[in-house]
Design brief:
With about 240 residues, the protein is of the alpha+beta class. It has helices at about 15-25, 40-45, 50-65, 90-100, 115-125, 170-175, 195-200, and strands at about 65-70, 75, 105-115, 130-140, 145-150, 180-190, 210-215, 220-230. The strands form two sheets. Strands 3-4-5-8-7-6 form a six-stranded antiparallel sheet. The protein has a two-stranded antiparallel ribbon with strand order 1-2. A hairpin with a 2-residue loop joins strand 4 and strand 5.
């Protein structure tokens, strides 16, 4: 593995090491906005990792608005104006692990259901079409942190329901199994539903941070997820460098 002057901590996952290297060089201005960056093949050879590992690093940088990827052309440094308005799409397991804490998932539902008219509209599917559904409670050191209610387009991730989501998260699996192109978010403070309050072990009147997130390939919706967090247990913070 390549080392740099500001290497990531020992034990960092290979994809995160590639991401750290590229992010550092972008921050240093080594690639001006719009400039073509190293290809996946070049990064595979440079770091001695798999193409899948490099692809995940690039997907996360793209989700953060730091790079643009054009199929069949290459990867380009993003225009700087994009950096200030991005919200990073991350795996909750990784967030918890970085705090040195234990992540646990309780799978409440894992099933195929027919799309309602509203859900079908969100995923670009006709009413009644099969949709994959999971309802999972994520815990940090035994304390419920997030209720994840997710619907997935089967055409994008046909193996979704075969996964063991006590061992991997839906976000991690979808990062690996799909070609993420962009994401949409809405964030609001709201009360949980009665079922969400029960699953999170909180009062139905407790304020929660609710994130609705939809992700896309270049031409179709991959998934829509409602992520509910007790307001006293979760917050969002970030930074950018203009």
């Amino acid at each position: 593995m390549v080392s740099t002057a500001s290497s990531p901590p020992a034990g960092t996952a290979p994809y995160a090491q590639v991401k750290h290297y590229l992010k550092g060089r972008l921050a240093a201005g080594d690639w001006a906005p719009g400039v073509l960056m190293p290809s996946e093949a070049e990064l595979v050879a440079q770091f001695g990792v798999s193409r899948m590992t490099v692809n995940r690093a690039l997907r996360e940088l793209q989700a953060e608005g730091l790079i643009d990827r054009v199929q069949g052309v290459g990867t380009f440094a993003a225009q700087l104006h994009k950096v200030s308005s991005t919200l990073t799409l991350r795996d909750l397991h990784d967030e918890i692990a970085e705090r040195g804490h234990r992540h646990e998932a309780r799978v409440v539902a894992q099933e195929e259901v027919p799309a309602t008219e509203g859900l079908g509209g969100q995923l670009g599917l006709p009413p009644g079409a099969p949709v994959f559904h999971t309802l999972i409670v994520h815990l940090e050191n035994g304390v419920p942190l997030q209720c994840e209610d997710r619907y997935v387009n089967p055409a994008c991730a046909p193996g979704y329901l075969a996964q063991d989501f006590t061992q991997t998260t839906p976000t991690h699996y979808l990062f690996e199994a799909t070609a993420l192109w962009r994401a949409q978010y809405s964030i609001e403070a709201a009360r949980p539903t009665k079922e969400e309050a029960r699953l999170l072990g909180i009062a139905p009147t407790e304020p929660c941070l609710v994130i609705v997130r939809r992700t896309f390939t270049t031409d179709r919706a991959i998934t829509i997820a409602r992520l509910v967090h007790p307001g006293t247990r979760y917050g969002i913070e970030g930074q950018f460098t203009p």
